[in-house]
Specification:
The complex is a heterodimer of chains A (259) and B (246). Chain A has 259 residues and is an all-alpha fold. Chain A has nine helices and no strands. In chain B, helix 3 packs across helix 4 and helix 4 crosses helix 6. The chains are: A mainly alpha (259), B alpha/beta (246).
Chain lengths: 259, 246
């Protein structure tokens, strides 16, 4: 019945998402001199601060800098990618108003560009981790797998917040405000053992905790996360994606009135 | 639907949501909390039905804000109607706004590629489409290497039109944007439109320029407050349009 949307084939859609993602990256660093290197600076500053301030506070942690950096790496992706996904629809409202494209193309493209950025970031950070005394075992490969499950979680969360943000811009603003709180709520700079045992369950309300914990197990502790951890990570990620996708799909019909 | 019909619209209805109390003050918001729905529907298209014949040029006229663009967006598949039936045979190339999706930081060439992908040109004909855009816009290779934030508005218009007109779509939708470009390029656009029409492209044309409507279009409708108040040939249509403001 209804009019055809363009981009019917899977291949066409894939090409478009890829082209938009590359465009995002090129535009982001276009007029800066150091370009990509600025995005390393942010996590690097965190690392330095943690090292000097918290390094002495947790003498019980062996090789604290490496401990901190494994957490920072996982965290770094989160604010950048969620913000990019949340704003993607409103940023491309002009296109969505004039060309029949599936709205979900833009959150997807934003996730892809954030991921590419993150992969590039992993190169210098692998160097830093090796320099800090990392001896990578085969478990490190599992760490990479965990990062991809984490990306699924971020996409799902992004869909959800992005859809609501179209109706109430408060969502995006609130999200930025919450970011520091969430950062300190996640055991990035400190060990979980620091939290009193009777309220430690609260940490598990934070989904990012599981990804930081899993990644750290693989990279820092040279352990394979147990089956339970995997099940939790996978259910969080795909559950969030499912809910996010359904909500987005349900709400996108009315996006048009709010661009 | 007969074989010669390319677009059929039946009892189309669409309304926008509007923020009903506009939340001007916090007090007002608290006061209204729960008692009213946060969003209210504003009917824009109110039961429109018409048919467009294959290969014809169909005009849509009406005052500002009467729902012309919304109607075009529904036909293009950009918005889903609340009620009604829409049947479109063939690929639509909508020209609803100029320069949409153009990225100022990127070069003209990169923008052509991106726009072609955005408008859904299949990868098999991407190369020839890019050539066609280059040719039609008359922009030099040097121009196309330049970031388009350094383009004049006329050059951007050329680029945008070329992207939309280079292809040979089954249906072309033009929303009152022909008034840009210098005289030479305007004439070129008109002749391209007529050429496409001769080749069998169906054209939906929104404009306030009565002369253009009479020159290009065969038939058309006049819309007032989301309803069709006149349907007929373009001469009478223009007359009725003038009467609206008499």
């Amino acid at each position: 019945m209804s009019a055809q949307r363009t981009h019917t084939s899977f291949q066409q859609r894939y090409r478009l998402i890829w082209a938009l993602a590359l465009k995002n990256i090129r535009v982001k660093y276009k007029n800066s001199i150091l370009g990509f290197f600025w995005s390393i600076l942010n996590p690097l500053i965190f690392l330095l601060i943690f090292n000097y301030i918290f390094g002495k506070a947790f003498p019980q942690i062996e090789n604290y800098p490496l401990y901190a950096v494994t957490g920072i790496v996982v965290w770094t992706l989160f604010p950048v990618a969620t913000n990019a996904v949340i704003s993607s629809i409103l940023e491309n409202a002009g296109i969505l108003k004039s060309i029949a494209i599936k709205p979900s193309t833009f959150p997807m493209a934003s996730l892809v560009s954030s991921s590419i950025n993150f992969y590039l970031l992993l190169i210098p950070f692998t160097g830093i981790m090796l320099w800090l005394g990392l001896q990578p075992g085969w478990e490190a490969l599992l760490g990479i797998v965990i990062l991809h499950i984490y990306l699924v979680f971020i996409l799902g969360l992004g869909y959800l917040l992005c859809a609501f943000n179209v109706f109430y811009r408060d969502i995006g603003l609130l999200w930025n405000t919450l970011m520091p709180a969430l950062f300190y709520f996640t055991p990035i700079a400190y060990p979980v053992e620091l939290i009193p045992e009777n309220i430690r369950w609260a940490m598990k309300l934070n989904p990012i905790y599981f990804f930081v914990d899993g990644f750290r197990k693989c990279i820092y502790e040279h352990q394979v996360p147990d089956l339970n951890n995997w099940i939790i990570m996978i259910s969080i990620a795909f559950g969030t994606l499912l809910i996010g996708h359904l909500v987005f799909k349900k709400l996108q019909k009315n996006f048009f009135s709010f661009y | 639907m007969s074989a010669s019909t390319i677009i059929q619209v039946q009892n189309l209805e669409f309304g926008f949501f509007s923020q009903h109390n506009g939340i001007n003050t916090f007090k007002e918001m608290l006061h209204n909390l729960g008692s009213r729905k946060p969003f209210q529907k504003k009917q824009v298209i109110d039961g429109i039905s018409f048919e467009v014949e294959k290969g014809s040029c169909f005009a849509i006229m009406g005052r500002n804000g009467c729902g012309k663009s919304t109607l075009l967006r529904i036909i293009s598949g950009i918005i889903q109607p609340d009620r009604g039936k829409l049947d479109v045979q063939g690929k639509i190339s909508p020209l609803l706004a100029l320069g949409v999706g153009l990225e100022p930081e990127l070069s003209g060439m990169d923008n052509i590629k991106l726009s072609c992908l955005l408008t859904g040109i299949p990868s098999s004909s991407l190369k020839s489409a890019i050539e066609a855009v280059k040719h039609f816009s008359e922009l030099t290779d040097q121009d196309l290497k330049m970031q388009i934030k350094r383009y004049s508005s006329g050059m951007i218009a050329r680029l945008a039109f070329s992207i939309a007109l280079a292809e040979e779509p089954a249906i072309l939708i033009i929303d009152e944007i022909l008034a840009v470009g210098d005289e030479g390029f305007q004439n070129k656009c008109y002749s391209r439109i007529l050429e496409l029409k001769e080749k069998g492209t169906t054209i939906l044309f929104v404009s306030h320029a009565a002369a253009d409507i009479e020159k290009i279009c065969d038939k058309g409708i006049l819309i007032e407050q989301g309803k069709i108040i006149f349907e007929g040939n373009s001469k009478e249509l223009v007359q009725r349009y003038h009467e609206l403001f008499a």
